[in-house]
Specification:
By secondary structure, this protein is mainly beta. The chain has two domains: about 130 residues, Immunoglobulins (Immunoglobulin-like, Sandwich); about 350 residues, Neuraminidase (6 Propeller). Helices cover about 10% and strands about 45% of the residues. Strand 12 and strand 13 form a beta hairpin. About 45% of the residues are buried.
Amino acid sequence: MTRILKYKFYLIILISALYGCRNKPGGNISELNDLPPIDPDYSGITIPYNIAPLNFKINQDAKAYFVRFSSGGKSVIETGTRNGIVSIPQEKWSKLLGSNKGNDLKIDIFQKDKNGNWSKYKTITNFIAAEPVDPYISYRLLYPGYESWKEISIRQRSIESFKETSIIENSVVDQNCINCHSYNNGRSDDFLFHMRGSFGGTYFFRDGEFKKYNLKTDAMKNGAVYPRWHPSGNYIAFSSNRIVQQFHSALNKKVEVSDLESSLFIYDVDKNIMVDANLPEKEKYMDTYPEWSPDGRWLYFCRAPLAGENFKYQEIQYDLFRVPFDPATRHTGEPELVFNASEKGKSVSFPRISPDGRFMVITLHDYGCFPIWHKEADLWSIDLDSLEAYPLSLNSDRTDSYHSWSSNGRWMLFSSKRIDGLTTRPFISYMDENGNSAKPFILPQKDPEFYHRFLKSYNIPEFSLVKIRVGPGKIRRSAGMPAVQAGMPDN
């Protein structure tokens, strides 16, 4: 949004607020039988008490509107608007939610017609959860076609406000591709990302500086991708993949990404060595998307039979496996099947375990390992005690994919194409103690019409506990330095 547009937007909000102060509903108010048509749809949802204001637009022609937010019988916010855009004062909103944890949030919307008569919609009832959400999320912004590396950035957004900051802009590194950012268990003082192109390598951020590494050793056929940090922070599991892309002319599926071969490696952070997970008969399989159990004793991953050079990508399906892991020796044990997706005619991607270790949420789709263009992709939960699997109620009829647990296990952040079928947007859903999801809501923006104009996709949304204090300019200096070469174990 340009500076002029920002000024106009704020002016409209100010005028609407002043107007609303002297235009409260009165007289004979008629009752409507419908819920108000608001966008985004912030109705019937469970929200954290530390969420930014849920600004919305009322999509109904009227001369004026009046909105009342209330909770606990005493806390009230009232605001009026002539254009239907409802902007909630930040300070009042935070106080309302913070003092009413565990209570309903009521939203009453009134509208005045051209004759001056007021009517009231049915009350929207939301719930204010007692559990907070992690205060930050990070994501990669890029155009949804994925064919171009132009204007890619990794950014961090405060969930408690609308402030967004850039971590990395690829404009400062000759528009190389930046991807696969990964936090050390939510701690932003220790994270990594990959870069492809002329400044290619894996970049670690430590002690306020970036350092470039080459993690591919002589023992590896392919580079290291899809990182997941061990709970101790001492190891990082990677898959080493040979990836091919197919670009389609079909409107509903632009890109298909397939493995030709993949295997698992474990990087020892302190010793700077890359260790082969050395799974039995690994040459027969493609192993990808590692995930650690919270106690660090199990390594989960997705496995499919080796595709070979001549393959039909529609026939490649991944199942969920795990192996025991000994942190002292870095040794793994025998693989065991956890969820047989191929038996159901499906494929598994992105296994993510809840912080308490009780549930795993996966992306389930028809085939392959890149579900972002699969309309049928949904999020499923697996009870790790009973191994029962079921679809989450947060799913839509369009792509629901990459997901991240909050540190307290009560919130799920995921990407979805439910708005337009093309661009991925970040959604948040409450997860109860039994692993059930509530109705999701889109990450709020200051301007409620933002998502209808913004052309880029939100890719790999991840929760973070603390703010990343680094500007995109720091990456240029480290990009020009030689990469530190990872070693191999002595035995």
